[in-house]
Structure formats: C-alpha cells, structure tokens
Write a structure and sequence with these properties.
The complex is a heterodimer.
Chain A: H1 2-28, H2 33-38, H3 44-53, H4 60-71, H5 86-121, H6 126-139, H7 143-157, H8 173-206, H9 210-217, H10 222-230, H11 236-259, H12 265-274, H13 278-306, H14 308-311
Chain B: H1 3-6, H2 23-28, H3 40-43, E1 46-47, E2 56-58, E3 70-75, H4 91-100, E4 105-107, E5 113-115, E6 118-123, E7 129-134, H5 148-158, E8 173-178, E9 181-185, H6 193-196, H7 207-213, E10 227-233, E11 237-242, E12 256-261, H8 265-273, E13 279-282, H9 285-291, E14 297-312, H10 322-330, H11 334-340, H12 363-368, H13 374-385, E15 401-406, H14 410-424, E16 429-434, H15 437-446, E17 451-456, H16 462-470, H17 484-494, H18 499-515, E18 519-532, E19 535-536, E20 563-564
Parallel strand pairs in B: 1-2, 3-12, 3-13, 15-16, 15-17
Antiparallel strand pairs in B: 2-14, 4-5, 6-7, 7-9, 8-9, 10-11, 11-12, 13-18, 14-17, 14-18, 19-20
Helix pairs in contact in B: 10-13, 16-17, 16-18, 17-18
Classes of the chains: A mainly alpha, B alpha+beta.
Chain lengths: 317, 567
C-alpha cells in the first residue's frame, strides 16, 4: 500500500505533464484544425466560427487550465470531429484494445515460456537453434503482414474466424472470441519472439547458478527444476518488458485494428490525429499515459511477488 | 414551370454533384485512382466483360423483388456524424444517408434533376427564387410531420456559420409559403441551385428529434428514409431496420441493413469473398479489376468526372510562368501515370474536369489538351531557363526546381517518383515531400505549395464546380488561377437553363483553363459496388412516380429498392 501511495504523486505529475505536452505538441502540428473540421469548401467566416466554437482562438495556457478543470470532474470534452463525448468514446474503445492486447500478451506468454525454457535447457542444441531461428524470423515479420497472412489462411481459406469486424463480449462471448483471435494473434507473434529470446537469455544464466546445481544434485526432475526453481528468478526481464511492451501493443494495435476493422483505441487515436481532433487526442494520450503508469506500478508490485527481498528493501541488482 | 422544365439533362452514369462535406473525398483520393476520360467508346458501359476498358456491369439474373432479409455492407470509411450540417458525408456517408434520409431532389438515370421527397421545385423567371413544394402526408421516423416548418427549422441550422452545409446556403434566405411550400431566395441567379438539395443540405431530418437529442443528434439520426436507425457502434457497425411507415408503398424490400466501415481495401475485399459481408464499395482500381474475376460476385462499376491530377500554384514562382507549367504538362506521360495508379488498360486518360459521359465534356477541349512531348517540353522549359527576367529570381541557365507534395499512400508515393523521373528528364529538379491529408488540404487552401497531387472533378453542375475551382476568392481555388472570361462564363451558366448554351460556356471556360495549364490530369476513377449474387437491384432505383432512377454512383446505393434472395 505504501508503495502505491508513494507512486501516486509522481503518477499525477506525469499525467499533468503528458496532458500539457500533448496539447502543446498537437497545437504545433501543421494544418489548421478549424479549417480541417470546417472542410475545404468553407469560407473564412465558417472557419472562424468553428475556431471560436472550439475555443481554438484562446491562448494555449487558458485552454489547458480549462481542460484540466473539466477533466478533474471527468469531463474530457466533446470530439471536434464527431461531437461524441471523449470519455464515452474512450470507454467504448478501451475494452476492445485491452482485450486484444491482453489476449496477445497471454498467447505470447503461453508460447514463449515453454519455448524459452526449452531453448535455455537445450542451449546450443538443435531445439535451441530451431527456436532461435523461428524467433528471429517472427521478429522480422511486421504485424500488418502477419495480419494479412492470418486473414488469408484462417478467414478466407479455412473460414474459422471473420476477416473483419468486432462482436462485444457482452453480446456474444463465442463470436467475441472469434472476432478477437486473429487480431490478437497478429499482435502476439512479434511479442512472443521477444519474450522467448529474453526468457532464454535470463534462464541460461539462472541455470548456471549454484541453487540449480544443488537442485540437480538433489535429484529433482528437470521439469521441476525449470518451472519451479529457475523460471521465477528468470522472469524479471520478461516481466519488465511485458510492462513496457504495452506501448508496442498499442502501436501495433493501430495497424491491426485498421486491418481487421476493429473499433479500438489505436484506430481512434490515429483517426483523431489525422483529422486534427485535438481534444480527442488529448483525452486518449492521458488515458494511455495513465495505463502506462498503472501497468508499471503493477509490474513493480509483481516484482515483490517474484522476489520477496524487494518487499523488504533488499532488492537484488 | 414543371420540374421537368428546369431539369438539367445529363446522360447516364455521370452525376454526383457534391461539394458539401466531401472534403475527405476531395483530397484523400488526391490522386488515388485513375480513371476515365478519353473517348466515348472507352468509357461506355459494357456488360460482363472481364478486363474491359471503362466501367462494366457484370451482374447475375435479377428476378422479381423479394421482401425481407438482412444484408451487411462494407463501407470504405466511417462517417463523423449522421446529422446533416454536422457530418462530413463522403461517398460512404452518402450511401448510408440514402437509407436514413430521402433527398428533396435527386438526379435521374438521364441526369435530370428531379424532385424526390419534394413534389415540385419551380424557379421564378430570373432564377433568383425557387419554390419547393413537399409531398403531403410524409412523416419522419419519430412521427413528426414533414412540412414547411420542418424545412425552415432545418434550414436555420444548416445555414448557420460553422456547419458543413453553410457554404451551400451562403446568402440564401428561406420563407414559408404555406404548410408544404417554402421559397429559397438567392443572392444571384442560379440555375443549378436544385443540385444543392441532392445532398446533405437537402436531406430533411426531424427537428423534434434533433432538438430532443441535442449534442447527440448526430448519433441518433431521424429522417424520412426507408430505414430507421437502430444502433451505432462507431467504427464497427450501424444497424438500420425497415421503416414500416415508409411513404413509398411496398418499399423498402429489406428488413435490415448493417453497415460496417472497413477502411482497409484488401481486408474489405477479403470479407466479401469469404462471405463475412454481402456487399462492399471500392474505389481502388486494382481491387475492382480483381473482383471482376471473383465467383458469385456481382459488379456494378461506374466512371465519373473524378480524375487524379496535379495542381499548380500559379501564384508561386516558377509555376507562375506558363512556360514552366506547359513544360511540366508536356513532360507528363499520362499512360504511365495511370499504369502506376493501377488503372492501366482499364481507364482512359483524362483531359478536363468532365468525364466523357458528362454532358459538359468537350471533344474540342480533349483534342486541344497538351500531348506528351518531352522534346517540346524541353524547349519550352529552356525558354524560361534562359530568360534573364525569369520569375524565380535565379540566374539564366540555372535549373528550375519545384517541390512536389503528395500523400504518403503507397501508390501515390510511386506516382510521385514517376513525376520526379519524368520531369527530371527535361531538367527540372523535383523535391518530393510527403504530407498527411489535413496538412495537404490546409496548404492548398493557404496557397503554401508549388505542385500538389490532387483529385479534380465532381459529378455536379459545371457552374458550381467551376465556380469553386476558378473563381477569385473561392476557398477551393487552390491554383489561384482566375480569368475574366472564365468568370463571365461561370456567371452566364448560372443565369440560364439552356443546356446547349451552358455546354458552350463550360467548354469555352474549360478551354481557357487548359490553355493556361493550371493542372494536369491522369485518369478518372472507377467506382464499384460489389455484392454477393443474392443481393439484387443495386442500380435499379426508381422515382416515386415509378420512372427510372440512376446508377450506383461512385459506390453509393439507393437502398429502398435493393432486395436479397436469401430472405
């Protein structure tokens, strides 16, 4: 709890900084948001009306203070582009991206942990070389290419999952899974390659430690040694990267959500940037920043589970 | 005067006015496709011919209408809002709007501007006043009557500054004549005014519902159309159900339509061929050609006025000198450009902002357009290069340099590189610059560019289109080109309904524009609606009086008349 509290103030400061920087950076983007929203056929009076309506004629600090004032009450404004409340748009989209991202990470971990472990256990052997080769191969495949390949095989040829579209979990769990699986797989492939390589590297080191030699001397089975004694101390890098990869998942989601026509946060963010929907960009940026902060706090907490010494202030290097 | 009297006749397949709210379409495509112009034969509609040049209509036996059933249709983009005045309706949005709303005026198969939701529309003698009379006993989906008061309420909102439709009603006032009639008073004669009411400024929506829904009205559309709004998950699906109280008896045939925005062209096509969706629209030439050979798919293609192009900023050195512009145009191999854009062998080169099937297309203008002639281009450029008074301020003999802006789309990047190669052969240094769409449009409006890839040509009234492109002070006069004779001709076109005279005026104006080489052309754009063959009658809509309607213009469909045999 103290850890959580200790994190709260810097987290809030981070969010305010992100909000301000986002507003500043978006205001520096070329192109007049009012003109973009009014359209090319709009005359100057129409553009001026849009600018005034959106308060774009006010100084940036004034706009920022106004935005923060509204944001603390939960009002993130309304989209310039669609007039939809930003908070509502994010609430609609967030679960989609979270589900796809969580499934991608889950799939990646499910595959990477046994493969990385096997690779480390058989370091230098045929299995290790095969896993390494496949990992590097998968790393080289961009998610959009994997997405197209998956659509071709699983949607067009086999018909196991729809090529595009999204069904909400609450509407139909089975259809929801079918609509989520291909986007999740497209994102998972790159991730699992990274996870496999990381886990292998750490576990190779772990397996050379005295504690493992002791376990072997005791006659414990390889599976017990690997998954009970070696996996946990080998998971720090993996856990850290999983936390950091939230950003990569989101950037991958931008492409994958567009390809699979999934209404996620990444697609909304890109559309909003391209259409100069600054208030939507602002809201999404803050939510993403908040997600990062939360995920990293969770990761820190998980460290303490992996290694109790951290909880007692005896962190390992 | 009866509706037919003022109608401007246009031949089959061409018409799609639209300037309101199609910002995205205008430029997004900036050069995207490729397409038509050229000779009449090339652009004619052919039936079921694979690999044919021009648009084809390759469809299965239609049979008799069947009532019931649901279809899912893939759109190329989501629409920002479904409320006229608030939403930016590109082709995708227009297609959906034809299910939710009815246009007051609609273009016919013959290109006439005929009343649809309106019963009649009559001008006064000098074309400054237009009196529109509604059909009686029509209600919006929420039961609100469609009457003059509703139109007045819509007009007040649609004409307000800052709306997407404000420019359509610039200087226009409206008064209520009686319960079902209103009168539009224009600041100047305009024979093309009814064309404004074919699009979002002419799609009546329930003022009661709009007031009740307030800021959320765009997410809760209430029109008079054949389908009623059911639900909308943005970027995922819009569900519409049959309007059982529709004013056209027996219509619509379908019980439900689900629209799904699928922005990626390839996955949209995969969704169609794998059976996830029942139909889709597309403007991508390569996919349209590929779908011609797909089994069980009916293809409804159409070529309009839209053409890929380059626009020159005539206020910016060295493009302010006609010798440079002519040189660049003569150094442009249109066939190569079309090939790179994916329309090779399918769409003929364009020569003007009117396609060959448009009544305002001019053979003479086509013949006069500059030919690909690198040697002549070289000579023309050399005259500028050696000129001690050259406008770019460089010393005689120094090479000409231009900056070429285009969108970061793969095919457009490729075509930009082609222009760089073509123009460098005559000694022009071309700096390529990729800009995303919002910046691209803004720079064009502000005149902050030299050469930009663009998309020209709208299927609309020539006076309205030329007014936007070539009149001084128009926000869309991106080339900054104005000419007193062109202006005079545009004004004269607005003041007459005589089609032959308007054709002469348009051709003369187009000729002056082309003589000044303010833009170059690649080819037009094939538009496609492709459906599973159980979906019927995509292009067979009719007017309330039963007369023949039109085609599926650039991917848009009139849904009231569509049915499925898989009810």
């Amino acid at each position: 709890m103290r850890l959580v509290l200790r994190r709260a103030l810097p987290a809030i400061a981070t969010l305010v900084a992100v909000a301000f920087l986002t507003m500043m950076l978006t205001s520096l983007l070329p192109g007049d948001p009012a003109q973009t929203i009014a359209g090319p056929e709009a005359d100057p009076e129409d553009v001026a009306a849009v600018r005034e309506d959106l308060r774009l004629d006010e100084p940036l600090p004034t706009r920022f203070v106004g935005w923060v004032g509204d944001a603390v009450t939960g009002d993130l404004g309304r989209s310039y582009r669609t007039n939809q409340p930003v908070a509502e748009a994010i609430t609609e989209r967030m679960p989609v991206t979270i589900q796809i991202g969580a499934m991608a990470i889950g799939i990646a971990l499910l595959v990477a942990i046994p493969l990385g472990t096997l690779s480390a256990y058989k370091a230098g052997g045929l299995a290790d070389r095969a896993v390494t080769g496949v990992s590097f191969g998968l790393l080289a495949v961009p998610s959009f290419m994997m997405a197209i390949l998956l659509i071709l095989v699983f949607a067009e040829t086999l018909g196991w999952a729809p090529a595009t579209g999204w069904t909400r979990l609450t509407a139909d769990p089975v259809e929801n899974f079918r609509s989520a699986i291909l986007p999740a797989l497209a994102l998972a492939v790159g991730e699992l390659a990274v996870y496999t390589r990381l886990l292998r590297a750490d576990m190779v080191t772990t397996l050379q430690q005295d504690s493992i030699t002791m376990a072997r001397a005791k006659g414990l089975s390889p599976a017990r040694i690997l998954f009970r004694h070696a996996l946990r101390p080998s998971s720090f890098s993996l856990l850290t990267v999983v936390g950091l990869q939230i950003g990569a998942i989101l950037s991958g989601a931008v492409l994958v959500e567009t390809l699979f026509a999934v209404p996620g946060l990444g697609r909304l963010l890109v559309d909003s940037i391209l259409q100069r929907d600054l208030v939507m960009v602002q809201g999404i940026a803050v939510v993403i920043a908040a997600s990062f902060v939360v995920v990293n706090v969770v990761v820190d907490l998980l460290y303490t589970l992996l290694d109790p010494r951290i909880r007692h202030g005896h962190a390992t290097a | 005067m009866k509706p037919e009297d003022w109608s401007l006749r246009v031949r089959r397949g061409r018409v799609r006015l639209v300037a309101f709210g199609v910002a995205a379409a205008l430029v997004a495509a900036a050069c995207g496709g490729s397409d038509d112009s050229g000779d009449d034969e090339a652009a004619s509609v052919e039936e079921g011919v694979e690999g044919a040049t021009g648009a084809i209509r390759d469809v299965s036996e239609q049979g008799e209408p069947v009532t019931g059933g649901s279809i899912t249709f893939g759109l190329e983009a989501e629409t920002t809002s479904w409320l006229p005045g608030e939403g930016q309706f590109a082709n995708s949005g227009v297609s959906v709007a034809y299910a939710l709303y009815d246009p007051l005026i609609k273009r016919s198969a013959d290109g006439e501007l005929k009343p649809y939701l309106a019963e009649s529309m009559e001008p006064n003698e000098d074309l400054t006043e237009w009196t529109l009379t509604l059909r009686p006993d029509i209600q919006f989906h929420d039961g609100t009557p469609l009457d003059a008061a509703a139109l007045m309420s819509n007009f007040e909102q649609l004409s307000a500054d800052g709306t997407q439709t404000a420019s359509a009603f610039d200087g226009v006032t409206m008064e209520v004549v009686d319960d079902l009639s209103v009168r539009y008073t224009l600041p100047a004669p305009d024979s093309a005014f009814p064309a404004v009411l074919t699009l979002s400024p002419g799609w009546p929506y329930s003022p009661t519902a709009a007031a009740a829904n307030g800021a959320d009205a765009g997410a809760n559309p209430v029109g008079t159309g054949p389908f009623v709004f059911e639900s909308w998950e943005r970027d995922n699906r819009l569900v519409l159900r049959r309007n059982d109280n529709y004013w056209q008896e027996g219509l619509p045939y379908l019980d439900e339509i689900v629209f799904r925005p699928i922005p990626d062209e390839d996955t949209r096509m995969s969704s169609l061929t794998s059976g996830d969706i029942d139909g889709m629209m597309s403007l991508r030439q390569s996919n349209i050609i590929e779908l011609r050979e797909a089994d069980g798919i009916d293809n409804y293609e159409q070529i309009g006025n839209s053409t890929g192009s380059n626009i020159f900023n005539t206020a910016e050195p060295p493009l302010d000198d006609i010798r440079v512009r002519r040189a660049l145009a003569m150094a442009t191999d249109q066939e190569q450009v079309i090939e790179v854009l994916g329309g090779g062998g399918v769409v003929p080169p364009a020569t003007q902002i009117f396609g060959p099937d448009d009544p305002y297309y001019s053979e003479q203008v086509a013949e006069d357009w500059v030919d690909y002639d690198p040697e002549a281009a070289q000579e023309e450029l050399q005259a500028y290069v050696d000129d001690p008074e050259r406008s770019d301020g460089k010393a005689p003999g120094d090479p000409v340099a231009v900056r070429y802006d285009c969108l970061p789309d793969a095919s457009l990047v490729e075509v930009a590189q082609l222009f760089q190669a073509l123009w460098s052969t005559i000694g022009v240094e071309v700096e390529l610059r990729q800009v995303e769409q919002a910046t691209h449009i803004n720079e064009a409006i502000q005149g902050d560019y030299q050469v930009k890839c663009w998309r020209l040509g709208i299927d609309g009234d020539p006076a309205a289109v030329m007014d936007a492109y070539y009149l001084e002070g128009s926000p869309q006069n991106f080339t900054r080109f104005t000419d007193p004779q062109v202006t005079e001709n545009i004004e004269a076109m607005k003041a007459t309904t005589d089609v032959a005279e308007r054709q002469r005026l348009a051709a003369e104006a187009m000729s002056i524009v082309n003589e000044n080489v303010v833009q170059t052309y690649s080819g037009g754009t094939l538009g496609l609606v492709a459906v599973q063959d159980h979906v019927k009658n995509i292009d067979g809509w009719t007017y309330p009086d039963g007369s023949e309607g039109g085609t599926a213009t650039q991917g848009t469909v009139v849904w009231a008349n569509v049915w499925t045999t898989e009810g």
